[in-house]
Write a structure and sequence with these properties.
Layout lengths: L2 E7 L4 H22 L3 E7 L12 H18 L7 H4 L7 H11 L4 H14 L7 H10 L4 H13 L2 H11 L7 E6 L2 E5 L7 H11 L1
Parallel strand pairs: 1-2
Antiparallel strand pairs: 1-3, 3-4
């Protein structure tokens, strides 16, 4: 029986950006288990913040800037703080989640995820805006018109909301988070943001 490693994330989650290098290493370390059909990896979108056109409150901006500085100092990931001067931030991550969902249908979810993170944290662009997400889609080779139509479809059908509800029902309430689904048993995997070794050990133990 193939077990499934669930990776719950939000493309606009700053801790997910901080976790990216270690997540990449973890996936590489797990590749032999994937190749031998012992394990599959299933991303799930977490949905930090619903659709909103309301500018972010000063208190929330200050809190997020402080979080960025904390992640940069503890994990070494770079952040472009020009974002806070060049944009009107909104507490709205569902559009970015929809973009990853749309890209999933073309086998490009991780490419879209990374493109959104690069746009946000490196290039200081706002992924709450459809224009930014369309640029990301074109960057990874998607058709802009088709992407925008698919975004409307996913929003109309509330497909993101359904996936977010499923994640919550599984207890995946923080981002990033990892859990191993083995049969009907869900085993939480503790995160180490700096080294994949303990996560590899925990996953192998859970599989045995």
């Amino acid at each position: 029986m193939t077990a499934t490693l669930l990776y719950c994330y939000d493309p606009m989650c700053s801790w997910c950006w901080g976790f990216r290098p270690t997540w990449t290493k973890l996936q590489k370390a797990l590749q032999p288990l994937i190749d031998s059909d012992q394990l599959s990896i299933q991303p799930m979108l977490g949905g930090l913040a619903v659709d909103s056109d309301t500018p972010m409150a000063k208190e929330m901006k200050a809190k997020l800037e402080a979080t960025w500085k904390n992640i940069q100092s503890t994990l070494g990931m770079e952040f472009n703080f020009d974002f806070w001067q060049n944009n009107t931030p909104r507490r709205s991550t569902y559009p970015a989640c929809r973009a990853c969902y749309v890209a999933r249908d073309m086998g490009l979810e991780d490419e879209m995820y990374h493109a959104i993170q690069e746009a946000y944290y490196v290039k200081a662009k706002n992924p709450s805006d459809l224009d930014t997400l369309t640029e990301c889609a074109e960057h990874i080779g998607m058709n802009a018109e088709g992407f925008n139509k698919a975004m409307q479809h996913v929003k109309h059908k509330q497909l993101i909301e359904q996936e977010i509800l499923q994640a919550r029902q599984l207890g995946l309430n923080s981002f990033p988070s990892l859990a191993l689904l083995k049969g009907d048993t869900l085993i939480s995997i503790s995160l180490d943001y700096k080294d994949p070794a303990s996560m590899v050990t925990a996953i192998k133990k859970a599989l045995s």
